[in-house]
Write a structure and sequence with these properties.
The complex is a heterodimer of chains A (about 160) and B (about 750). Chain A contains 5 helices and 5 strands. Chain A has helices at about 20-30, 85-90, 100-115, 120-125, 135-155; strands at about 1-5, 10-15, 45-50, 55, 70. Chain A folds into 2 domains: about 1-75, Beta-grasp domain (Ubiquitin-like (UB roll)); about 85-155, Orthogonal Bundle (DNA polymerase, domain 1). With about 160 residues, chain A is α+β, with helices and mostly antiparallel strands. In chain A, helix 2 (about 85-90) crosses helix 5. Chain A starts with a strand and ends with a helix. Chain B contains 18 helices and 32 strands. The chains are: A alpha+beta (about 160), B alpha+beta (about 750). Chains A and B meet through helix 1, helix 2, helix 3, helix 4 and helix 5 of A and helix 6, helix 8 and helix 17 of B.
Amino acid sequence: MISFRVNSEDVVFEGDERTPLLWVLRDHSDLTGTKFGCGIGQCGACTVLVDGRAQRSCITPISSIEGRSITTIEGLATSDEELHPVQTAWLEYDVPQCGFCQAGQIMATVDLLQRIPNPTDADIDAQLTNICRCGTYARIRQAIHRAAELQVGGGRDV
Amino acid sequence: MSDTASLAPVTLSRRQFLVAGTSATGAFVLGMPLPNLLAGDDSTERQLGFFIEVQPDGRVIIGTNQPEIGQGVRTALPMLVAEELDVDWDTVNIRAMPLGLIKTADGYTWKYGGQGVGGSTGLTSNWDFMREVGATARQQLIRAAAARWNVAPDTCNTEPGYVVGPTRGARLSYADLVTDAAALAVPEERPPLKAVAEYRIVGKHHKTIDARDIVTGKAKYGIDTRQPDMRFAVIARSPYLNGRPHSFDDSDARKVDGVLDVFEIEGPAPGEPYQILASGVAVVATSTWAAIQGRAALEIVWDRGPNANDSSDAFWAENARLLDGKGQVVVDDGDFDAAMTGVDTVVEHRYEVPFVNHAPLEPQNCYAFVEADRCHIIAPTQMPAGAIQSAAWATGLEPEHIHVEFPRVGGGFGRRLTNDYVAEAALISKKTGWPIKLQWTREDDVKHDFYRPAGTHEMRAGLNARGEVLAWTQRLASASKYYRRPNMPDENLWEAELYPDDVPRNIVPNVRLEYFHNAIGVPRGSWRAPAHTANAFVIQSFIDEVAHETGQDPLQLRIDLYGEERELAYANHGGPTFNPGRLTRLLEFVADRIGYGTGTPDGRGIGLASHFTFGGYAAHAIEVEVSDSGDLSIERIVAAMDCGYAVHPNAVEAQLQGGTVDGISTALGLQITVKDGQIEQSNFHDYPLARIATFPSRFETHILPYDETPTGVGEIGVPTAAPALTNAIFAATGKRIRRLPILDQLKA
């Protein structure tokens, strides 16, 4: 039995302890905002925050999550009205096309901006390795810079 | 792609096509009527398929009928309706409609019009229709108001959400007119449409519908489907092209906690048309992970089938052998052989374009629940009508008993024109009796696809002493996309691979196109901008080579070839005409923007390309730097598109950006190869889609409007990116890339 928190709620999982966090979130907790893209940690569509740090949930066995605190895309905004600055920036630049990778892109960016509050283009290139099949990279880059500005103004930790 | 001919709609007159009425909640609705309904099909929902609903409280709901695959059609089509209806865009709510197939006494018809997206037609095929839907509703509201005021309708006008009468202060909200409007018959004559200059919504920037749901994780894709009592399934498909399970041991699989059932799935006979892609063994379980674990525990002995010796090496060797012979001449303008005997210079090169995988980021999946007399399908698909056919094939049910929903789709790129995964899910549900969610893994998707066809192109051009191209040939040996199409004669296989009216036909006097088919067992299908991706790469590379080898400037040679604006005949998709002068305009624009011809430092170079794709025009200028050790860096990208009229400029820009990324990513590192009858790649580690670091911050996209007729935009931006990149590499290094992908060719 694995106990942990997801978006500030207690969760208990009693299945196979090798089950990836991704499938626990999606099939067990019905939190489908976290996406399955590759299953080998390559594309980043499944990125969530584990104790505040980005992690690829498709290669994270649930056994490693005992006592940890998970934030998924559903739990990122303070409320329906008050989005996280990264989400706000994503909307300002109208980033999504198909949108399937964007939860992962956003979670990875939240983590990036915690570590590097005002990243350069080179920082973004080095740090953001999530795949966008639709090719929204130009807008993602703009939105990351915008999110950095917004966080300077009213930034907060997750 | 599934054959949908048997579901061809009956032809309806305009009067039958649009009808006004009142919904159960008292709203005014405008939509398709259902003439001659079959007994029992009399629910309100079925009787009033709607596009527009004006609620008594003034809210406006606009239905969208097309699959949203990221191209923005769910935003753009309602914009057309809202524009002609004359409402404020921010009062509009969007509602997705399911597939509207219905059976009438006259045959099958589509309640919401044709539903399917591919070939960059989602907007263009609905451009007139959606505007007319909006204008008709507005006309009904005006007539209702005019009757109330006892004035002639043509003395009335509208302001957003209101009808305004001829007398001072005469003004009624649409909401107040709902009941009256619903009672009026729709006139036979078409309503007048707005002039482009009058547009307040269309042609303006708007945010993508659903963007907020996407960034908050609320948007639902097919993969997110949850239904009562749903079981989860995966399939171990034959890793061998046209192979099948010889025998299998499922004893360990059945021991996996949560595994419920294991059974064989029979695939198509080799060479026969596809309903599903491959034979295999299905595992059904209580969760996705349990199904995946159960599959991993299967012991399967494969019958390797008739293609066990297929390999990429043999494929390329066979192409070369074929090109040494004589093929099927499909275009022969002028007298190519005679012209070549008199030319001053001959340029000749061969190019290789690989198989590639679609790799939409949402892996294939489908929910299916097959019961004795009905079937429910929820699937990410570009062709919902094909989904009905796939489910009908799998279940034996008549199409009208199959209900298809198609949520937002996590990428299409042509892969989801084919609904093989719908057929698989329906087979599994039928066999087990359970509601089934079939899940493909990434490995399944990379190894089992309808890949973009691969081919070897031999190009030859003859020029006179003035550098004018007098004769041109393209000889293509390839694996045709039309392989395994039902009722497809061999002599038509070329039609999927060569689009004869592309440049330089009708420009160069002597043109010969020749085709050779290479029947490798790799499945193939439509990949974004299908054959244009190969042909634009080849033609735009070869024009560059001709220029360099005859001492001409690559930009000027293109301008000389394209010439002035004029309409040339274009019989392929995107015609009936093609105006090469529009390519000149784009090329000159991107060349100017990037500073072409002003000199670049050592190790840097600028490449250009332009192409006409499915009615739209695009050009790219790309600047690269290549280090002494062969490291490639893309320094700057300037992309421009002429899509006639940009209905939703925000989405046009997005498609141009995305198409550019797709073209570059694919050219840099993507290929599917075959060895011992098996696809060699399996996931993103060996099928490496490009990441953000590949693309520079100096990445401009420009829309150059031309007239008042929109073209599609989903595919137009893809084909020119690759040749602009490889032409830039040549300009920087003198190294010509004639084989895609580029991979480590610059290191050699």
